[in-house]
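FAQ: What does a ligand-bound record look like?

Like this one, built around histidyl-adenosine monophosphate:
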Amino acid sequence: MGQKVQGTEDLLGGYMREWEHMLDVAREVFSAYGFDAVETPALEQVDTFVHGIGESTDVVRKEMFRVVSGALLGDLLAAGTESRLKARQRLALRPEGTAGFVRAAVENNLVPQGAAPMKAWYAGPMFRGERPQKGRLRQFHQVGVEVLGASDPALDAELIIMLVEFFVKLGFPAESLSLRINSMGDAACRPRYRASVRQFILDHADEMCDDCRERAELNPLRAFDCKNPACRAVMEGAPLVTDNLCEDCGAHYAQVKAYLDEAGIAYAEDPTLVRGLDYYTRTVFEVDVEEAGVGAIGGGGRYDGLVELEGGKPTPGIGFAVGFERISLALKALGRTLETPPAPCAFVACTPDARGAAFSATRLLRAAGIRTEQDYQGRSLKGQFKLADKLGARAVVVLGPDEVAAGGATVRDMQTHEQVLVPLDQLAAAVSSKL
Ligand code: HAM
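The answer part, i.e. the structure of the complex:
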């Protein structure tokens, strides 16, 4: 028997309805803020992620699933190494949605140049080869939003406000959400800050783990996320980005906070929040539900250099993404659920001689948009009622010789057990009123 890949999940039954509910809420909340839905491929060229997310990030170095088709496998074996393949032959499953979205916007000439910003939202599976554990999967589902073409700090604040609103509409009490924010600086001030953290790690190299020593060269800011207690203790003394922002970045960050304060959004400043993707500049943020212990349920930030890295003209951008599986777990930990009841349905039951009339009545109800079930196994009337009950039908339409003779159908309300005989042209309305 086949088995699912470790770290993947099937979305079935109520769990699938949780995902669908999240999509419904996303559409409702994000469209009020002017976002349109987009979909980009789950399969992209490796370069899209290398350019965008950054060659030295864990996501690109260790977690990206490379894809080799049967036809390409021969080329790969002949080339001996992936780097000898052409860019169009080096493929990966997307570990996140932002780089692919920006690639699509650049390739389709949709990057606004001085015009109104482009706002888009998306949802779908993402793939990261992480060690699976609770809330950490290899295929997980994100809902994300992106805005290209505006650097106004009001937009940063607005997106954070929209994110909180989304979580509240999904069922999180506002007090359960812990929002952390930071500013990562920009091309003017970040390189200098990065160099000072690198130097700090080198100065403390003998107290830190091998990974952090490697990080000093590759990606020094990631040392803030090291789980090793000794490294954590050392990093408490490291220079903080917020003490090293240039004047413009400092002013931008102050404005974001002022807008959040005005909107009454609770947040904590965390100058060690560095995020795992290299494209971020200035504002970054993450949301956790501390009681749930599943890690961040959402995060994002500004990426003013990413459009250029993906081959477009310099254009500011900002966005966030949330993780479906973690949201589902976190709500359960709070005694809540994303799950919605199945859609109400009707059931058409019949005696054997009225099978044809039942077939037509089922078609009639479905044409009126009513979710309708019938029996395909030749059950007795009693058996059909049992099945209707099991399916949660709110109304059962009964067709027997009397109904056929009268040119109508009996509609039974499954809650009150009331029955009425209605003419066929009033059947859909009579059933609808019970659902
Ligand atoms: P991220 O923080 O890497 O950001 O992922 C966003 C969310 O996806 C996380 O907060 C988490 O809920 C969920 N997530 C990430 N990895 C896993 C995993 N292995 N298993 C389960 N859930 C996971 C991004 O992906 C950025 N693209 C967000 C963004 C959009 N920034 C700007 N625009």
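Follow-up question: can I read anything off the structure? Yes, for example: The chain has a mean pLDDT of 96.
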